[in-house]
Amino acid sequence: MILITIAQILDLLISVVVTLVIVQFVLGLLIAFNVVNMGNQFVSAIWTALNALLQPLLAPIRRIMPNTGAIDFSPLVLIIGLQILQIVVWNLARAM
User: Fold this and answer.
1) How far, CA to CA in Å, does 35 sit from each of 26, 41, 78, 86?
2) Into how many domains does the chain fold?
3) Which residues in the chain land under pLDDT 70?
4) pLDDT tens-digit map of 61-75
């Protein structure tokens, strides 16, 4: 019973992190294509907060992955890794 609860909590945390990664990706595209302006204080605060939250998770992945030029695949690798973790945790919780 406790394992199911832990699995649900981890599921929620993984969902939040995946959502933050997607928001960071979309905001990065909007900034790159000048749809939103970094001069806007709100946009700048959101961008800084997202980078501060996700940098500890993305930095190790970026160190391991080869340089692919302008395309950063580390958010995709993070999302896939979190989804794999989610599957493993749920299967372990169900098995016990």
Assistant:
1) 11, 15, 26, 34
2) 1
3) none
4) 999 999 888 888 999
pLDDT of residue 3: 86
Parent domain of 28: 2-63+71-95
3-state secondary structure the chain: CHHHHHHHHHHHHHHHHHHHHHHHHHHHHHHHCCCCCCCCHHHHHHHHHHHHHHHHHHHHHHHHCCCCCCCCCHHHHHHHHHHHHHHHHHHHHHHC
35-45 pLDDT tens trace: 999 999 999 99
